[in-house]
């Protein structure tokens, strides 16, 4: 029911019935026979004279124009416009009726054709060809299916106009319109403009929109003479002047710090500004809102957290917006009902109660719309359920094993934290005067006991057999701060693993540390696995794993996911639009990899990472969550190690090896994330190498490309301003370095994000596997009441329930992870949606096709690996196969698929 209503709503309003054929193109016209004046507008260069008349207009009006040129070519123009939901809902307003009148009069879209050539006699731009395009009031079947309206007309090129290089568009409606394409047919030859862009109403701004004809791309020095000035002016518009509050219809890209996450006017919601010397951070898109009363450095927050400015073309498409909204409702509302009783308490009573959150009967009806209708009819309805995450659908108990705990460091949701142990004993690099003795409590004897005599610690180090999750120094400075918050706690932690002969990891020990403070001495506890599942040591080990899982969940969400993909990519998007023209080949290459990211990030600032938002409310660091990501950015983030091979080498998970297939040799042979990731990395690198070589055959062309150099300089000095003086930034001085830079950006926006995002429901949807927060201290911690340990011994399950997230926290996180793990129906996957201009260049079109074909091959390779019984980290009884880097997917929660961009 809901779908059909939305479908009918999205159709263009029909002003006339199918019998109104007199309004179709070519039929008799009821319009007055007069020449329509041009709109009161200015183009990108000058104000149109008020007395200027269009050279021609559409259809029957052409007969009233006296042509003074000796030869003309008729241009048949067809514009496809997608009506917006917002526009249709306002169609009954006065503005909507005026727009209908404009359509009736044929005055809705005014265009100017721009020659690609300058006038050779004067050296100036050639006179533009202008005219109105008229709404086709008869909706044909194809337009109905595509949900578009057609505007069309005829214009005439004068002799010597030359090649059409661009079109200027003025929208005479009182509301914006989404222009999909403009197709000009000149004597059977088509000139296409793939726009896919919002065009503001002329009443909002007189500035005309420019669209360039589909071409493979031009370097600045190769720009056709008639388009050079237009190319420069368009970039100036996109940069803006850095002042004023941005309007919804604008397309201005500028930088700002993260000064809108908190609300200093409310003491409880005050948060530090992220970006600057004290809290280094990448920059976000500037909105220009007024500052708060209490802090002139902080920006006031909008009343509607879902209405934060992003440049207009960065916003969701209609389809994405509708699906995103419905998915949010569909996954959040059902969470309330099965947990309603539990929400009245502070904890779940048992694992059995947790399991009742999930639908374990695939045949059970969980249709959302029907259930909503039932709510209206009766309060005695069957509860809603979450779908079973893949992890427990395959095996309800495997998540609780040490084998699965270790496996997920290599093949789970956060494969970016595991690292090789290269030094022992472990020591902290933090100030011992502040935090206490730096030496770890994990001893040689503890590790060797865990290895059961297989080898000594020295031998394990030499043979690269010891690995670790090291959250010790990152978290330790925040332990006492977090412990001042209610309902949460924190430790610094180290977890050590041993690489067994079958290629799997086995956990050896967990160390949890409470730093020294003015009131407490330092405390360190080391916990190890126990063969007796009912022993106190086994219960303590499980509690320690809950803490480590919560640490890993926080580092994953705040750093591996949010910071290293969403946050660090936004500066690339801003710089690309400010410095690289739409004509630039690098802009054309990167554009699809930036789709939706700025809009998603704005939504995150509105309700996810903001003060009191979903992350702070549900993850262990509480109000310090995003500040913690700033610490990581300051200490560890560097552009050059975001490349997959460099990241693996940095963590000791690989070493350089020129004889190896990808130039590196993995330390753990069966490392699913790295195994599959290197295949796609190599495919991206090959594609980008061919692309760059085509447009930049020489070093000189890279060095002298002023747009490209400004782009890279701005990324370093403005987008990542707090890192601008770092020596590790690559130098953009060769095609090889450009290839490396672009490959890294594409990897992060596609594969890195996919690997840490689309498995969130599969692994985190069953929250005991990855609790977002650990709420209670270890009962053996110094200063704890002895009753806590006795309770663990007598009622271990109850102790676990107290440590897990509360029911309210659990269902909120599950619902959000379901939304974040969902592929939208209009998703564009890696290797898809190439620039239309590439079809005109056989070399680029061929390279793009080979890239797409290689990704298909990689998908088949991934399938084969997931049935290879020798690969124990991705196959076996109850094991979730590793498909997060399988390139393609259907829509929905699939646990696979690599979109082009950070689209969710």
UniProtKB/TrEMBL annotation:
Gene3D superfamilies in alphabetical order: 3.10.450.60, Lipoxygenase-1, Domain 2, Lipoxygenase-1, Domain 3, Lipoxygenase-1, Domain 5, PLAT/LH2 domain
Ranges of Basic residues composition bias in the record: 282-291
UniProt entry keywords in alphabetical sequence: Chloroplast, Dioxygenase, Fatty acid biosynthesis, Fatty acid metabolism, Iron, Lipid biosynthesis, Lipid metabolism, Metal-binding, Oxidoreductase, Oxylipin biosynthesis, Plastid, Transit peptide
Domain Lipoxygenase residues, every copy: 217-904
Residue stretches making up the PLAT domain: 87-213
A Gene Ontology BP annotation from the UniProt entry: oxylipin biosynthetic process
Annotated localization: Plastid, Chloroplast
Domain of life: Eukaryota
MF GO annotations: linoleate 13S-lipoxygenase activity; metal ion binding
Catalytic activity entry: (9Z,12Z)-octadecadienoate + O2 = (13S)-hydroperoxy-(9Z,11E)-octadecadienoate; (9Z,12Z,15Z)-octadecatrienoate + O2 = (13S)-hydroperoxy-(9Z,11E,15Z)-octadecatrienoate
Family: Belongs to the lipoxygenase family.
Identification of the protein by name: linoleate 13S-lipoxygenase
């Amino acid at each position: 029911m809901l779908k059909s209503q939305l479908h009918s709503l999205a159709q263009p309003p029909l002003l006339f019935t199918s019998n109104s054929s007199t309004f179709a193109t070519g039929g008799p016209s009821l319009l007055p026979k007069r020449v329509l004046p041009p709109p009161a507008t200015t183009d990108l260069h000058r104000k149109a004279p008020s007395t200027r008349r269009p050279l021609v207009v559409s259809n029957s009006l052409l007969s009233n124009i006296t042509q003074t040129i000796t030869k003309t070519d008729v241009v048949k123009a067809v514009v496809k416009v997608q009506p917006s939901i917002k526009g249709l809902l306002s169609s009954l307003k006065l503005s909507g009726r005026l727009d209908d009148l404009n359509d009736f009069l044929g005055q809705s879209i005014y265009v100017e054709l721009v020659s690609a050539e300058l006038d050779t006699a004067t050296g100036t731009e050639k006179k533009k060809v202008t005219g109105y395009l008229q709404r086709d009031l008869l909706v044909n079947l194809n337009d109905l299916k595509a949900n578009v309206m057609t505007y069309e007309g005829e214009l005439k090129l004068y002799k010597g106009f030359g090649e059409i290089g661009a079109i200027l568009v003025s929208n005479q409606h009182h509301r914006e319109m989404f222009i999909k394409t403009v197709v000009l047919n000149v004597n059977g030859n088509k000139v296409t403009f793939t726009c896919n862009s919002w065009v503001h109403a002329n009443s909002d701004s007189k500035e005309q929109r420019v669209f360039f004809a589909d071409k493979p791309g031009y370097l600045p020095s190769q720009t056709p003479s008639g388009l050079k000035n237009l190319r420069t002016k368009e970039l100036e518009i996109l940069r803006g002047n850095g002042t004023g509050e941005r309007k919804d219809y604008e397309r201005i890209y500028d930088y700002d710090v993260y000064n809108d996450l908190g609300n200093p006017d409310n003491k409880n919601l005050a948060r530090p500004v992220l970006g600057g010397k004290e809290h280094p951070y990448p920059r976000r898109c500037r909105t220009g809102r007024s500052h708060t009363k209490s802090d002139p450095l902080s920006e006031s927050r909008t009343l509607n957290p879902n209405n934060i400015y992003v440049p207009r073309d960065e916003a969701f498409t209609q389809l994405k917006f509708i699906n995103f909204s419905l998915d949010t409702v569909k996954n959040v509302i059902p969470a309330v009902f099965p947990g309603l009783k539990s929400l009245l308490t502070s904890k779940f009573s048992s694992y059995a109660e947790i399991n009742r959150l999930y639908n374990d009967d695939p045949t059970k009806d969980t249709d959302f719309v029907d259930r909503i209708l039932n709510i209206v009819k009766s309060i005695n309805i069957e509860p809603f359920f979450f779908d079973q995450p893949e992890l427990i659908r395959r095996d309800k108990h495997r998540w609780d094993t040490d084998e699965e705990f270790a496996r997920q460091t290599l093949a789970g949701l956060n494969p970016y934290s595991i690292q090789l142990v290269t030094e022992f004993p472990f020591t902290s690099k933090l100030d011992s005067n502040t935090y206490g003795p730096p030496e770890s409590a994990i001893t040689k004897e503890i590790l060797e006991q865990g290895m059961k005599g297989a080898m000594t610690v020295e031998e394990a180090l030499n043979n690269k057999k010891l690995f670790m999750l090291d959250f010790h120094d990152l978290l330790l400075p925040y332990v006492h701060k977090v412990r001042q918050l209610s309902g949460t706690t924190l430790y610094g932690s180290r977890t050590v693993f041993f690489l067994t002969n079958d290629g799997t990891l086995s956990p050896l020990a967990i160390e949890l540390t409470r730093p020294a403070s003015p009131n407490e001495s330092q405390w360190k506890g080391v916990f190890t696995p126990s063969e007796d599942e009912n022993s106190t040591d086994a219960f303590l080990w499980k509690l320690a794993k809950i803490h480590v899982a919560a640490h890993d969940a926080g580092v994953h969400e705040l750093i591996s996911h949010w910071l290293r993909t969403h946050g660090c990519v936004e500066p690339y998007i801003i710089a690309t639009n400010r410095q690289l023209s739409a004509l630039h080949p690098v802009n054309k290459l990167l554009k699809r990899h930036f789709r939706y990211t700025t809009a998603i990030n704005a939504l995150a600032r509105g309700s996810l990472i903001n003060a009191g938002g979903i992350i702070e409310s549900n993850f262990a660091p509480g109000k310090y969550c995003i500040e913690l990501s700033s610490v990581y950015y300051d200490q560890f983030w560097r552009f050059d190690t975001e490349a997959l091979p460099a990241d693996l080498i940095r963590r000791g998970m690989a070493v350089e090896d020129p004889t190896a297939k990808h130039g590196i040799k993995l330390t753990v042979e069966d490392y699913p994330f790295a195994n599959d990731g290197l295949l796609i990395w190599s495919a991206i690198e090959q594609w980008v190498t061919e692309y760059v070589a085509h447009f930049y055959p020489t070093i000189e062309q890279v060095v002298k490309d002023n747009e490209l150099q400004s782009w890279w300089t701005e990324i370093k000095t403005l987008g990542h301003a707090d890192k601008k003086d770092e020596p590790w930034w690559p130098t953009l001085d060769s095609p090889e370095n450009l290839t490396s830079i672009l490959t890294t950006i594409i990897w992060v926006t596609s594969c890195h994000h996919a690997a840490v995002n689309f498995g969130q429901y599969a692994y985190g949807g069953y929250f005991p596997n990855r609790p977002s927060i650990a709420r209670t201290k270890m009962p053996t911690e110094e200063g704890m009441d002895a009753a806590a340990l006795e309770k663990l011994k007598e009622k271990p399950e109850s102790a676990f329930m107290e440590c897990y997230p509360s029911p309210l926290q659990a269902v909120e996180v599950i619902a959000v992870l379901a939304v974040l793990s969902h592929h939208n129906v209009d998703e564009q996957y890696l290797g898809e949606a190439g620039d239309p201009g590439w079809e005109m260049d056989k070399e680029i079109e061929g390279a793009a096709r080979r890239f797409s074909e290689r990704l298909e091959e990689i998908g088949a390779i991934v399938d084969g690996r997931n049935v290879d019984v020798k690969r124990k980290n991705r196959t076996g009884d109850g094991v979730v196969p590793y498909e997060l880097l399988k390139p393609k997917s259907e829509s929905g929660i699939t646990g696979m698929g690599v979109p082009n961009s950070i689209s969710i």
